[in-house]
């Protein structure tokens, strides 16, 4: 799995988790969803992705090409 795909999968899971938390725990968890969206938006323009940096250190996408984060 490439780093790009791992980041997209992680973001998708986090969005789904935040939706479930908003529905079943507390309505203010929508702020978590907004934070994830804002982080995705800024990383599209800046290339700075904290999750990507952590995944890279963990070795995810090491043998694959086409990663977004250097």
TrEMBL record:
Recorded superkingdom: Bacteria
Keyword Transmembrane in record: yes
Entry-linked Gene3D superfamilies: 6.10.140.1340
Matches recorded under InterPro entries: YgaP-like_TM
Transmembrane segments annotated in the record for this chain: 7-25, 31-54
Entry keyword Transmembrane: yes
Keywords: Membrane, Transmembrane, Transmembrane helix
Xref: Pfam families: YgaP-like_TM (PF11127)
Stretches assigned to the Inner membrane protein YgaP-like transmembrane domain: 2-56
This protein's name: Inner membrane protein YgaP-like transmembrane domain-containing protein
């Amino acid at each position: 799995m490439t780093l790009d795909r791992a980041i997209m999968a992680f973001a998708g899971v986090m969005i789904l988790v935040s939706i479930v938390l908003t529905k079943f725990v507390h309505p203010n968890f929508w702020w978590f969803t907004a934070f994830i969206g804002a982080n995705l938006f800024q990383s599209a323009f800046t290339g700075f992705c904290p999750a990507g940096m952590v995944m890279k250190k963990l070795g995810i996408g090491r043998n694959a090409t086409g990663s977004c984060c250097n």
